[in-house]
Amino acid sequence: MPPPLQSLDFFQDSYELRIAQLKEEREKGIKIVGTFCLYVPDEIIFAAGADRIVLCGGKADTVPLAEQSLPRNICPLIKSSFGAVIDACCGGNLACPHVPLVDVVVAEATCDGKKKMYEMLSDYIPTYVLDLPQKPGSPEALDYFLSELRKFGKFMEGLTGNVVRNDALRREIRSANETKRLLHRLFELRKRDPPPIRGSEVLRVMQKQFFLSPDQFRQGVSRLCEEMEHATPDARTGPRIMISGCPMAAGNTKVADIIEQKGGVIVVEESCTGTRSFWDLVDEERDPWKALAERYLEIPCACMTPNDQRVARIVDLAKQYDVQGVVYYTLQFCHAYNIERFRVQRTLKKEKIPMLAIESDYGDSDLEQIGIRVDAFLEMIA
Ligand code: BJ8
Question: What's the CATH number for 8-167?
Fold first, then answer.
C-alpha cells in the first residue's frame, strides 16, 4: 500500500480557515450567497463582490427534521439540505454550520422536488430563484437564459451595492476556467493504470470545491496534482469503474467507499461532484454574459430534456478512462436520473460496457445489500 497523499491534508485543514474567512467577510459587510446547483454561475456572484458556499446536504441527520414538513418520498439531498436550514434557523446544532453564514439563497428551477422545497425555504431564509429553460437545445433557450442571467446580475447588484461590470465578469470567468483546467489535470492523471489516487479521495476533494474559496481550492488541487505526478501508484488492480448519476454532496461517500472496499478502482465520476462541474470551459473571448449562458446551458443534467449530450459524454468518458464497468448511482426518488438510466443502460449495452444500477439514500440500512451487488458486479467484469 503506497503512503497516503500528503497534500490531501490541505483540504482537511482548510476547513476552519474557510469558516473564519466567511465570518470575517460577513463582518466587513460582504454578502454570502448559498447555492444548491451547478446552474447558478459563481462567476456572477464573485463579480458582484459577494462570496458563495454550496449548501447541498449529504448527511442523514437532518432528514427526519425535514420530513416533519416535506413528504418522505422525495430525494434525500433535498431533505438533508432543507433539514439543515430549518435546524440552523431554529437554533439547532445538527449538521450544517454554514447556513447561518449565508445572507441569501440563490436557488434554481431544476427538479420538481427542489423547486417546491425552495418555496418553503423562503420562509426561513431570503431566496431568489434563477429560472432555466428546460429544453436547452431549443432556439429560444439561449436568449431566455441570457435574460435570466442578466436579471440575476441585477439582483446581485441590489444585494451587494456593486455593479457587475464586464471586466469583473471576465476576470471571474478566467479564474473559474483556471480551476477547471487544474481539475482536468487532476482527472488526466487518473487515466494512469493504476491511478495515483483513489476515487473516494477525489470525491472528497471535489466536494470541497463547493465550500472553499476558488483560491484555496486551486492551491489545494495544484499541490495535489504535483504530488500525484510523482506518487507511487496504488498497487491495487481491480476493475476500473466509472460512477455516473446524481451528485454525492459533502457527507455522502457511501457508494464510492463500498466500491473501493470491494476492490473496484474508481477512475472517473460523471456527476456534478465529478466531470459535470468542470469539463466545459467558458469562452474567454466572447461577450461574458453570452459566453456564460452558452456554457451553463451545456451542463448535461438529467432535469433537462432531451439531454442527449449526457449519454454521449458517458460513453466518451468510459472510453477515455478505459472503464470496465459503470455504476449508475441514483438518489432515492430522483426521477430524472432514475428514468434517464434506461437510455444510458441501452447505450452502454450497445457499447458492451457493463452497468450496475444502485439507488440509495443517506441511511445505513442498505450497506450490506449494496456490498453484495457490487461484489457480484466486480466479479462479473474482472
Ligand atoms: S445540475 S444534478 S446539482 S439539479 S438528486 S435534487 S435532481 S431529485 S441535485 Fe442537481 Fe443541479 Fe442537476 Fe447537478 Fe433533484 Fe435528483 Fe435530488 Fe438532484
Answer: 3.40.50.11890
